[in-house]
Amino acid sequence: MKYHKKPNTFVELVELKVADLQRSVEFYENIIGFTILEQQANKIYLTADGKTALLSIEQPDDIMPTQQKTAGLYHFALLLPTRADLGAILRYFSELNIRVGAGDHLVSEALYLNDPDGNGIEIYTDRPDSEWKWENEYVEMATLQIDAQSILTEGANTPWNGLPAGTVMGHIHLHVSELDLTKDFYNALGFDVMTPNYPGALFMGAGKYHHHIGLNTWAGIGAPPTPENVVGLKAFSVVYPSNEELQIAITKVKALGSEIFEENGIYTVKDPSQNKIKLTIK
């Protein structure tokens, strides 16, 4: 998990709006394996290690169901510590008859499902970075069929007791309205293009990680922002290793014409598709 701590910049807390808080809590506890870290009136913070919030869910007043063909969340991605953990949760999903999608991305092996509001979730493990294939500064990625039996075999002796303590928010993948300006925005935040030639998508990472940020136009070029009163992504946090690196990112983003707001040491900015990002240090 070296790509999700200092000295790297990474994504940590993803904040979701949901239609029914109790329904979502039951799903994220019983199906995904989170535990509650903190509970407020209409907002709950969820954790894997009992210390760090990786996901928050809240039920705003007058919230509306999800809308198609808008910018916003494609999925957030939980990175498990080992392939055996992936085998354990795949076995657990199978026992519960939960249908999941899957993909072998060369750098990682992943499972996909949606929460009750249609928010996308990826659960994955990375292959050792020594096995990643590079061409100059770009890493090779694809979407192939997983070897499910091999993954299940690897996890055969690993019990599933919820998300392991070493689970982190591996990346976030967003629907955006276009790629060029969005690429420049996330580059200013400190992320480099890692895979440039994926159809309709870009993958950007810090510290040579295959991606902390995924971007796609699969909801359509020019897709409008998700309205404020609709379920989906509220915000996500980008964590910097130092105040110096945070200030560099702020300066670069301001130079692109983006407005940044500061409150209690947390800076908030919106990308060109109006996805909200909180910039912080840890």
From TrEMBL:
CDD domains for the chain: VOC_BsCatE_like_C (cd16359), VOC_BsCatE_like_N (cd07255)
Domain VOC: 10-126
Pfam (any one): Glyoxalase
InterPro entries named among the record's database cross-references: Glyas_Bleomycin-R_OHBP_Dase (IPR029068), Glyas_Fos-R_dOase_dom (IPR004360), VOC_core (IPR037523), Xdiol_ring_cleave_dOase_1/2 (IPR000486)
Gene Ontology MF terms in the entry: dioxygenase activity; ferrous iron binding
Superkingdom, natural source: Bacteria
Keywords: Aromatic hydrocarbons catabolism, Dioxygenase, Iron, Metal-binding, Oxidoreductase
PROSITE patterns listed in its UniProt record: EXTRADIOL_DIOXYGENAS, VOC
Gene3D superfamilies: 2,3-Dihydroxybiphenyl 1,2-Dioxygenase, domain 1 (3.10.180.10)
Cofactor: Fe(2+)
Family matches, as PANTHER family: CATECHOL-2,3-DIOXYGENASE
Family indicated by similarity: Belongs to the extradiol ring-cleavage dioxygenase family.
Name used for this protein in its record: Catechol 2,3-dioxygenase
